[in-house]
Write a structure and sequence with these properties.
Layout lengths: L18 E5 L4 H11 L5 E4 L10 H10 L3 E4 L1 H9 L3 H11 L3 E4 L8 H11 L4 E6 L10 H13 L4 E4 L18 H10 L5 E4 L3 H11 L5 E5 L3 H8 L18
Parallel strand pairs: 1-2, 1-8, 2-3, 4-5, 5-6, 6-7, 7-8
Helix pairs in contact: 1-2, 6-7, 8-9
InterPro entries: Aldolase_TIM (IPR013785), ComA_synth (IPR003830), ComA_synth_sf (IPR036112)
Protein name: Phosphosulfolactate synthase
Family: Belongs to the phosphosulfolactate synthase family.
Length: about 260
């Protein structure tokens, strides 16, 4: 029975209000149990870092996510490893064999020139839905705001479905300071050059998630969400936690 007035959430095969989880090796049986209850509030699943390459029964895991209408993809670190070893064509074949339709192009560990990444995206977007990531995993790499804005703009213009803002699973790099503080000025600057619906903000903790919900709205795209936090995040989006308690039903759209 629905009797509360809460922010309206996007639903179904949504393109905004996305919850993108990170899977760092959840066993198949445990994953199935999680998805039975919470699969309807998960949209994308990243098989974290390069772990897909050593995940037992990875094809079964990919198929399980797809069974619940969740889009699986491999973490950008695996792409970077293949790029570094000149194995990108083999990586493409690997993804095709797994039935994965999404690919992440990142430079969180390697410094791949932007123009080269744009060329790779131009090549891959014929066969995949491409997600690109902006920002470094190195907390000491202080990328100017102007570069963030330019990369986001050009990556979307190149045909990426979404751009991910790097935050790591610890929330201590990229769009975050070393101590986990959000670079709020950077976030506002990025929203000047890109539609919030096209950005997935990595927000690994409830504290980070609540910031984006309050700043952008309940239907903000959030990534690097831990599987065990999925229900808590949905409650936050619906104004069912103290920090988001006063969200209005009218705030269903991104600001």
């Amino acid at each position: 029975m629905d009797f509360l007035t809460i922010p309206k959430r996007t639903s179904g095969n949504r393109t905004s209000g996305l919850t993108s989880v990170v899977d760092f090796g959840t066993p198949l049986g445990e994953l199935n149990n999680i998805l039975v209850d919470y699969g309807h509030i998960i949209d994308i699943a990243k098989i974290g870092i390069g772990s897909a390459y050593v995940t037992p029964n990875v094809k079964k895991k990919v198929d399980l996510y797809k069974e619940f209408k969740i889009k699986p993809y491999c973490g950008g670190t695996l792409f970077e490893k293949c790029y570094y070893q000149n194995k990108t064509p083999e990586y493409v074949s690997y993804l095709h064999n797994l039935g994965i339709e999404w690919i992440e192009i990142s430079n969180g560990t390697l410094e791949i020139p932007l123009q080269e990444r744009l060329q790779i995206i131009s090549w891959l977007k014929k066969d995949f839905r491409v997600i690109a990531e902006v920002g470094s995993k190195d907390a000491d790499n202080h990328m100017p705001v102007s570069e963030w804005k330019e990369e986001v703009r050009l990556l979307l213009e190149a045909g990426c479905e979404y751009v991910i803002t790097e935050g790591r699973d610890s929330g201590t790099a990229g769009i975050y300071e070393k101590n986990g503080t959000i670079k709020s000025n950077l976030i506002h600057e990025l929203l000047e050059v890109a539609d919030a619906e096209k950005i997935i903000f990595e927000a690994p903790s409830p504290k980070h998630q609540m910031y984006f919900i309050k700043e952008i709205g309940p239907n903000v795209n959030l990534g690097n969400v831990k599987l065990q936090d999925v229900l808590v995040l949905e409650a936050q989006r619906c104004g069912l936690r103290s920090e988001t308690f006063f969200l209005e039903a009218s705030e269903c759209n991104l600001l």
